[in-house]
Design a protein that fits this description.
The protein contains 9 helices and 11 strands. By secondary structure, it is an alpha/beta fold. α1 (7-15) runs parallel beside α2 (32-43) and α5 (102-114) runs parallel beside α9.
C-alpha cells in the first residue's frame, strides 16, 4: 500500500478505478475540488475520513499533500511481453535508461500519456520505483499509462526489435538531428539520465542516435523536457502523415505492403 497525495493524483486514481483503501481529507478543507473527490469516492464506494492536517502530514510523510490523500495498492507494473504481444499499429514506447529522479520519471510518464505513447519502460535497477512521488509528479497520468519494469533493458530492446520496433536514442553527441528520423512506424524512444546519458550497451542497441540542437553553454535538457520535444515531433509526423493519407485519392488496386525504413 502507498499514499497518493494531491487533488489531481487522487482524482485520476478514482477515475481510473484504482484500488483504494480509503481517502483522508484535512479538516477545514472545502471547495469544489473537495466536493468532487467526495462524490467520486461515494460513486466508487471508497471510504472517506476527515483528519486534522497534522495527522495527514504524519500519515503521508509530507506536507505537500494539498489536504487530500488516498491510501491505495501500489501501481502494478505491466509485463513487457504483454505490451509487445498487443502489437499496436505504429506503437510508441518510451524507454528510460538510468533515470533515478522520481520527479523526472513522473514528468516523463505524464508527457508520454499526453503524446499518445502506449507505455513507458524502466529497468528494475538504476531507476526510480513507482512511488507516491512519481505518481504525484505524473499528475495522475500513472493511473492511466502502463509502465513496464524489466530486469534487463538491453535484452528488452532486442525483443522490441524482433517485434518490429525501431529504437531511437537521444544522445547530445549525436550528429543526426532529432527531426531527421521517421517516427511514423513502431518506435521506441530511449532516454538517458541528465548526468550520464545513455549507457554504452544501450547506445549500441539503438538503430539511430539523435540530438536536440541547443544554443549557449547548456548542451542538454532535462530528460522530461527532452522527452516532450521528441515525442511531439513523433506526434507531428504522424498527424501530417494521416492528413496526407486522407487527402490522397483512393488507389485502384491495393499496393503490395512494404516496410518503410526510417531516414538514415
Amino acid at each position: 500500500m502507498n499514499w497518493i497525495t494531491g487533488f489531481h493524483a487522487v482524482e485520476e486514481a478514482l477515475a481510473a478505478g484504482r484500488g483504494l483503501d480509503r481517502i483522508v481529507i484535512a479538516r477545514g478543507r472545502h471547495g469544489d475540488r473537495v466536493d468532487s473527490i467526495v462524490q467520486l469516492a461515494k460513486r466508487h464506494s471508497v471510504p472517506i475520513r476527515f483528519e486534522e492536517r497534522i495527522n495527514l502530514d504524519r500519515l503521508t510523510g509530507t506536507r505537500e499533500h494539498q489536504g487530500v490523500a488516498a491510501l491505495g495498492s501500489a501501481k502494478p507494473a505491466t509485463a513487457i511481453e504483454d505490451i509487445l504481444r498487443e502489437r499496436h499499429a505504429n506503437g510508441l514506447l518510451v524507454l528510460l535508461d538510468g533515470v533515478e529522479d522520481p520527479h523526472n520519471v513522473g514528468a516523463v510518464i505524464r508527457t508520454a500519456l499526453a503524446a499518445g505513447a502506449n507505455a513507458v519502460v524502466i529497468p528494475e535497477r538504476r531507476a526510480a520505483g513507482l512511488t507516491d512521488t512519481v505518481e504525484r509528479a505524473s499528475a495522475g497520468a500513472l493511473a492511466h499509462l502502463p509502465v513496464a519494469r524489466v530486469k534487463n533493458l538491453v535484452r528488452t530492446m532486442e525483443e522490441m526489435k524482433e517485434a518490429g520496433y525501431w529504437l531511437v536514442g537521444l544522445d547530445e553527441r549525436a550528429e543526426k538531428n532529432y527531426t531527421e528520423v521517421d517516427y511514423k512506424g513502431s518506435v521506441g524512444i530511449v532516454m538517458g539520465s541528465e548526468g550520464d546519458g545513455l549507457h554504452e550497451l544501450t547506445r549500441k542497441r539503438c538503430d539511430f542516435l539523435v540530438s536536440l540542437p541547443t544554443t549557449g553553454p547548456v548542451k542538454s535538457l532535462n530528460v522530461s523536457v527532452a522527452a516532450g520535444v521528441v515525442l511531439f515531433e513523433a506526434v507531428r509526423q504522424r498527424r501530417a502523415a494521416g492528413t496526407k493519407k486522407s487527402q490522397a485519392p483512393a488507389p485502384t488496386a491495393a499496393p503490395t505492403p512494404k516496410k518503410t525504413l526510417p531516414t538514415d
